[in-house]
Specification:
Pathway: Amino-acid biosynthesis; L-isoleucine biosynthesis; L-isoleucine from 2-oxobutanoate: step 1/4; Amino-acid biosynthesis; L-valine biosynthesis; L-valine from pyruvate: step 1/4. The chain has about 675 residues and is α/β, with parallel strands linked by helices. The chain is built from 27 helices and 24 strands. A hairpin with an 8-residue loop joins β21 and β22.
Length: about 675
């Protein structure tokens, strides 16, 4: 389902009836005016939880024949549901809760949306104006508490400003860089009479987002692209917010520019596109990270240079000039200086670049760059059947589970959400997504408990789609109470738990960097998820046999109602490749190298693996076994073997370690031969 463009909101017009609403000019209570404002904005769904200071708002909502209310079982769940609704549609998600603990329970969800630039409008009940600041029962300064994690906030002081505030809140939430806006409504104000007059216009002199990119800067960016021999697009969530997929793909095709994609940008470039290199960064592909490191031009398209992408910043993209396109001027230059900064809406800026390139008659400068990356991609795949020792002991391989789910899902009619952890990274690596707004994940805040309620919100927004949440057993338990919400509202969401009975990602870090000191990351076999599903009226099953995985996924997807599939995986499974925290982007452990037998390189050997059995009991590997696959080498299993690696003194081939071009280019990397 295509999401509407933000043009109407950017021009100051509401998405709904606005001033043409049938309630215009009526005398009503403040609470009724809040609900009438939502109707005027075209809101069809509100997620929330009532309480004493919101009771007037909920009483007014009772009479609305336009708005469906989804009653969550926890306010945090309600915000994540609204977030999933917003991500799946591009329309603002709406939340309504009470004061005090009801309001403070929304903070994690608000911060999640803020970090990922998701438009929300959160309406909180508040104690009466006369007792604000007196520590009245269930009073909290929610405006002050959330100030760092909202785009804007309001504490209503008069019914005279109510409708203008509602109009402004929706306008701010969806325009510029989207984000959450909070409106705090004192309960006495909600009970006052007023004449409803909803404005179509918004007058905010200090808020003027820049949509049109500077023409001079666009021309400068095009000059750099025309001159680049090794250009790369670095694609973030801005491509989805701006709905710029068509323009981005056109630029890739026209100039043969490969693209790496962040977690937030997944789906912004079709997975099937041959120039889409997929994930980059801490758990990105080795070939993607190599491309980022070797590029001579990086065009950052709606991306913010997160530390999870850059690795050690001082060594990030050392050879590259930077073009940074972002609608938020605060992001440009915040992490990495840009040679050409462009503030503007990504869709329009890319269209401007395409027009300039057409005018110039520009063509790709060098097709060898794409050939180099293709060679890396063939040599360092995410997965190879020969590398999984666990396959010989009848363990379920999580990468294959995710891939199987991807095979059975129709990319045109499915939405996938994730919780946070190892399963999230496996989903990023192995689940193909062909369209924007079909992969929803907490990127910036990394919020455990996000994925399941977000899936409920997405399923409400997209009743035509199959919605699946990929979860971990730890993350799922953060908001598992929302199983009641799905069951009672007949929302047929599916949950596939990658169940390793541990907090997988922290457990992996403890294994690799903390001498296997598993402090508080091992979870007991509680609860029995199948029994939990039954208790909530869901269908559910557990699978622990690799041969049964495909059929179990099929049953889950075929179910008419909500379904939980508990997939048993080993605690020893790790997400690779991996860049260690604080390491350079090209310092990659656990990448598969097919040139040396399709094994993972530079990782501790698993107990009982052939590498361990052939080596010392400590599973240590010799320095010569630590292959730098950028220049080749041979895999050694004997810790006592100190033979030279390819490129070292004593080896039979003379290759400088830093000169990857001699390995991957038939002409030895000579520039003259390539021009």
């Amino acid at each position: 389902m295509a999401a509407p463009r933000r043009t109407a909101a950017a021009q100051g017009a509401p998405r709904g009836a606005g001033s043409a609403t049938a309630k215009q000019g009526r005398t009503m209570l403040g609470a009724e005016a809040v609900i009438a404002s939502l109707e005027a904005e075209g809101v069809d769904t509100v997620f929330g939880y009532p309480g004493g200071q919101a009771i007037k708002l909920y009483d007014a909502l009772y009479d609305s024949d336009q708005i469906t209310h989804i009653l969550a079982r926890h306010e945090q769940g309600a915000v994540h549901m609204a977030d999933g609704y917003a991500r799946a549609t591009g329309r603002p998600g709406v939340v309504m809760v009470t004061s005090g603990p009801g309001a403070t329970n929304t903070v994690t969800g608000i911060a999640t949306a803020y970090m990922d630039s998701v438009p929300l409008v959160i309406i909180t009940g508040q104690v009466g104006r006369g007792v604000i600041g007196t520590d009245s029962f269930q009073e909290s300064d929610i405006v002050g508490i959330t100030m760092p994690v909202v785009k804007h906030s309001y504490l209503l002081q008069s019914t005279d400003e109510l409708t203008a505030t509602m109009r402004e809140a929706f306008h701010i939430a969806v325009t510029g860089r989207p984000g959450p806006v909070l409106i705090d409504v004192p309960s006495d104000l909600a009970g006052e009479s007023m004449v409803f007059a909803y404005p179509d216009e918004v007058h905010l002199p200090s808020y003027k987002p820049t949509y049109r990119g500077n023409a001079k800067q666009i021309r400068a960016a095009c000059r750099l692209l025309e001159e680049a021999e090794q250009p790369l697009l670095y694609v973030g969530g801005g491509v989805i917010s701006s709905e710029a997929t068509d323009e981005l793909v056109a630029l890739m095709d026209r100039m043969q520019v490969p693209a790496v994609v962040t977690l937030m940008g997944k789906g912004g470039v079709p997975a099937s596109h041959p120039l889409n290199l997929g994930p980059v960064g801490m758990h990105g592909a080795k070939y993607s990270n190599m491309a980022m490191t070797e590029a001579d031009l990086i065009i950052a398209a709606g991306a913010r240079f997160s530390d999870r992408v850059t690795g050690r910043l001082s060594e990030f993209a050392p050879n590259a000039k930077i073009v940074h396109i972002d609608i938020d001027p605060a992001e440009i230059g915040k992490i990495r200086d840009a040679n050409v900064p462009i503030v503007g809406d990504l869709k329009g800026v890319l269209a401007g670049m395409l027009a300039t390139l057409d005018k110039d008659g520009a063509a790709p400068r060098d097709d060898q760059w794409v050939a180099d990356i293709a060679a890396w991609r063939a040599r360092y795949p995410f997965y190879h059947p020969n590398m999984a020792v666990s396959e010989t002991v009848d363990e379920i391989v999580p990468e294959l589970v995710i891939a199987e789910l991807g095979r059975q899902l129709d990319p045109a009619s499915s939405v996938v959400t994730t919780e946070v952890g190892q399963h999230q990274m496996w989903a990023h690596q192995f689940l193909p997504r062909e369209a924007p707004r079909t992969f929803l994940s907490s990127g910036g805040l990394g919020t455990m408990g996000f994925g399941f309620p977000a899936a409920i919100g997405a399923a409400v927004a997209r009743p035509d789609a199959t919605v699946v949440c990929i979860a971990g057993d730890g993350s799922f338990q953060m908001n598992s109470q929302e199983m009641a919400t799905a069951a009672i509202n007949h929302i047929p969401v599916k949950v596939m738990i990658m169940d390793n009975r541990c907090l997988g990602m922290v457990h992996q870090w403890q294994k690799l960097f903390y001498d296997k000191r598993y402090s508080e990351t091992l979870l007991d076999a509680v609860p029995d998820f199948v029994k939990l599903a039954d208790a909530y009226g869901w269908e559910g099953e557990r699978v622990d046999d690799p041969a049964e995985v495909a059929a179990a996924i099929g049953r889950m997807l075929a179910a008419k109602g909500p379904y939980l599939l508990d997939v048993a995986i080993s605690r020893e499974q790790s997400v690779y490749p991996m860049v260690a925290p604080g390491a350079a982007l090209n310092n990659i452990m656990g990448a598969i190298d097919v040139a040396v037998g399709a094994v993972r390189t530079d990782v501790p050997a698993a107990p009982g693996s052939p590498r361990t059995l052939a080596g010392a009991a400590s599973a240590a590997t010799s320095p010569c076994a630590k292959i730098d696959a950028q220049f080749g080498g041979r895999w050694e299993v004997d810790p006592q073997d100190t033979g030279a690696r390819l490129g070292q003194d004593g080896s039979t081939v003379d290759v400088a370690p830093e000169d990857w071009k001699t390995l991957f280019r038939a002409d030895g990397g000579g520039k003259e031969a390539r021009r």
